């Protein structure tokens, strides 16, 4: 909270006046950033072949996530997973339509529930943020790693074990 106050050029008391806890401050920041991301993702072309459309969505999502790595880490630490999920619901609508088209076209597995595929996609994006934060992968490699992983995981065909 002291760092936020310093960055904002105000005292800690002022920050605590608006946000009684670190979790409430992180929540407000996440809401603000996700509103901006939602607007930005509206411009992503999700037409055309579903695999290519999904790749464009992932790259655009990572572009915004990659700029907010410290906020992603703070949210994972301070907010309940259910709250994080609710905050991302609006963003999840776009890949749902692409995944549905992909299943109908036979390019994505039709034996995986769409809700599961969206959850996996978002966890991979957040997992990549964590790996970048740990310096296990370079930020410029993250989007293609996510795209490759998702397209392989969502490919049609059952896996027998």
Automatic annotation (TrEMBL):
Gene3D superfamilies: Tetracycline Repressor, domain 2. PROSITE patterns: HTH_TETR_2 (PS50977). The keyword Ion transport does not apply. It holds the Pfam family TetR_N. Residues 1-37 form the HTH tetR-type domain. It comes from the Bacteria. Keywords: DNA-binding, Transcription, Transcription regulation. This is AcrR family transcriptional regulator.
């Amino acid at each position: 909270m002291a760092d936020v106050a310093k960055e904002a050029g105000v005292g800690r008391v002022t920050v605590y006046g608006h946000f009684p806890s670190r979790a409430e401050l992180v929540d407000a920041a996440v809401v603000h950033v996700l509103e901006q991301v939602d607007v930005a993702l509206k411009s992503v072309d999700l037409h055309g072949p579903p695999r290519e459309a999904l790749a464009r969505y992932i790259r655009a999502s990572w572009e915004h996530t990659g700029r907010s790595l410290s906020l992603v880490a703070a949210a994972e630490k301070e907010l309940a997973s259910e709250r994080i999920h609710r905050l991302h619901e609006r963003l999840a609508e776009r890949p749902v339509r692409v995944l549905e088209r992909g299943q109908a076209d036979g390019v994505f597995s039709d034996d995986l529930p769409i809700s599961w595929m969206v959850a996996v996609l978002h966890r991979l994006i957040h997992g990549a943020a964590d790996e970048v934060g740990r310096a296990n992968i370079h930020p410029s490699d993250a989007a293609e790693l996510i795209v490759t992983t998702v397209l392989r995981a969502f490919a049609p065909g059952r896996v027998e074990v």
